[in-house]
What we know:
eight-stranded mixed sheet, 11 helices, Aminopeptidase, 323 residues, alpha/beta
Amino acid sequence: MMVWLGPLQPSGPNVHRGAIALLLVTLIACGGSPTTPTSPTTPTSPTTPTCSGTVGVSCFGTLHYVEYIPGDFPLVISVPHGGALTPASIPNRTVGTTVTDTNTIELGQAISQAFVTRLGRRPHLVIVHLRRTKLDANREVVEAAQGNADAIRAWNEYHAFVELAMAAVRQRSGTGLYIDLHGHGHAKARLELGYLLSAATLNGTDAQLNGSNAAASSSLRLLAQQSSLTSAALLRGASSLGGLLEGRVPSVPSPSAPSPGSDPYFDGGYSTSRHTLTLPGLQIESHFTGVRDTATSRAAFGDALVTALETFLRVHLGLQPAA
């Protein structure tokens, strides 16, 4: 079924006022937390939405349930679980997790601002503004929307915007990175970097990771295909994202915390499985205190992430982020 999304109202005073039309095809799609990056069970992709593409100018889906802020940096950040809208037209979900990842929208915005401040460039940012009780965009559509037409449409718009952002990155830079941004409530205050590899896999030795070519079955496999580094080096070595964050933000896997051990660990979900078929990427589960809790914490984390990603993109993808 074709769904017409009415004129999108851009935010900001300097926006061209031309209406932006958005066509999406309603579709039905897998949920849970996959441990291999095989293509998730998804329907035919919706028709690519159109957007002004003006850097920093928001495009919205129906009723502003989903927001896409185009960028000019080869990074796409999605934020599915930080929304607050609770429209009565969408019943509360009765199956699956409904907990909000507090302050993750604000964290995504702080990361974006850190790029602007440091590099004068902005990552692409896609946000769900619906509360997770209404929509979980990091699940396949059956669990995510539970049959409600408005929630299904928002799910479609969200993933279509992510795909639109990725197309823009590939057109401009050839490649880039995808981050699905979340928040966890686990006892250990550290980032959990999810590469679609289970804790049991990461608990293996470097020799075991290398012997099984683990990176080739991870969310970084598109990067691994062109890298001379071993799987262990890519996932938890000095030039891994965890390694580059070390000293500023603790994370697992990393050189100092190479595996989760017996601790709880999120390895990545539907969005990471689906969208790293297009760009290499990962899920970042952030702890609250020191990262999400205050504006100062969020700004400091944003600065640390920019520093790490500058090096990561240059070393692993041959991109010069400041160019």
